[in-house]
């Protein structure tokens, strides 16, 4: 069994479906299922709440009673079944219920993939970076394919492409996997540190608040960029290419972060990320045109990638290894889900007033982040 190849295939196929979900799901609900922008915002916003619940409770529980391989099979199959249920449903209530179920299962595949990768890193000689880069490549490929398919066949192809992608991912899970991933976890013999004890680290609460603000501020970008570009009369074929610009700059940042930012403290990285995020949303609001939107995509390397890297750097240097999973759980649930859920609802209301306001509204999170960092970085030196 070639562990490197197995991991690369899984990352590629999962992130191909992730590209469909992140870039197109809200637009698909609006354009193919016929819900309004505010209704889609409510559906996706509460979906993020369900995702946070799953990340903090369902995924950890399932991981304690199943092997890595069975965890992947369980969440992939459940995601596929729920996705098929979308086909006959057109009502708001029906779409809301199905999306809650979908959000309970599908996003949990992300930590499931990362957990499998971590297990392989502990027990085998694999190159995580190379495998993960194929995941980013899968994301880019999916967005380009969807942009072409929707331009020719319409919005309904988004759902069918997701079903195809999850079917392919499920087929991969049924293939032979590295033996270590089939081992059922044993009850831990040592006392697990609680999440509550994280806050005894004097700087952790402040850092967590900052990343909650910075990652939550991407809510309008993730949910409304597709329909915003449509509103600017951008051809569907080019929308996928434009959305991929951010991913390319994200990849470039991660490739170089360990070489030219080794002397930067997490607080300095977070400050630059907060400033870059503020500038990014201001540019989109002040210059509502396609060229400026493309230019603003370069700032994704700061607003998302740098903030994420800074948090990972902080917990790796500050926390004991036993607490890192707890910190990542809080980060995933609060920064990547709940905060985005709150601003998704706000962004939807602002978008219906004026599309650009949905992006300007993200400053509600980014500007306070700047001041929190300035007020705490010298005191806690994080």
TrEMBL record:
Query: Is the keyword Transport assigned to this protein?
Result: yes
What is the first-listed, main subcellular location in coarse terms? membrane
Q: Where in the cell?
A: Cell inner membrane
Q: List membrane-spanning regions.
A: 12-31, 43-62, 71-89, 95-113, 134-153, 159-184, 204-224, 236-255, 267-287, 293-312, 333-351, 357-376
- Membrane topology of this protein: Multi-pass membrane protein
Question: Which residues belong to any copy of the Major facilitator superfamily associated domain?
Answer: 6-355
Its keywords, alphabetically, are: Cell inner membrane, Cell membrane, Membrane, Transmembrane, Transmembrane helix, Transport
Looking up InterPro entries in the UniProt record yields: HcaT-like (IPR026032), MFS_assoc_dom (IPR024989), MFS_trans_sf (IPR036259)
Superkingdom, taxonomy of origin: Bacteria
Q: Does the keyword Cell inner membrane apply?
A: yes
Name under which the protein is recorded: MFS transporter
